[in-house]
TrEMBL record:
<dbReference type="InterPro" id="IPR036291">
    <property type="entry name" value="NAD(P)-bd_dom_sf"/>
</dbReference>
<protein>
    <recommendedName>
        <fullName>NAD(P)-binding domain-containing protein</fullName>
    </recommendedName>
</protein>
Amino acid sequence: MHFVLQAGFIRVDHDYVLKSAQLAKAGGCQHFNLETSKGANKGSSFLYLRVKGEVEAEVEELGFDRFSIFRPGILLGDRQESRPSEWITKKAMAPISFLFPTAYSVPITTLVKAMLNNAVLQSDKKVDLLENKAIHALGKMEEKKS
C-alpha cells in the first residue's frame, strides 16, 4: 500500500508536472511558473522534498526563456479532503504565522495573486526562485490599470 501511495504521489507531483512543462515548451511557452515547496531539494532523503527538487531541475533543463519557481511554506486555505497532519500543523503554526506572516506560511489566494503578477512582470532573470517573503510581496502588488 505504501509503495502505491508513493507511486501515485510521484506520478502527480513529478510526471504530470514535467509532462505539462514539456507540452507548454513544445507549444511555444516562453515563461513557465512552477509551484513546489519550501525546502525542495533533489538530494533530500525526504521523498516529498526530493520529488519537488527533481521536478524543478528537470523543468529548468527544458530551457524556458524564463522559469519562475514558487516555494511556499505551509499553504493556508480550506481543502475539501481531510488531511489531519496538515490541520494539526496549521493549528500549531497559527501563532507564529500571526506574529511573522511571511516566515512559514502563505494563503493560497496570495500565492495565486503572486503567480499572476509574476506572469506579467518583466524580468531579466532566466530563473526566479521565490520563497515566502517574495511570494507575499508579489501577492500584494497592486494590479496595473490599463
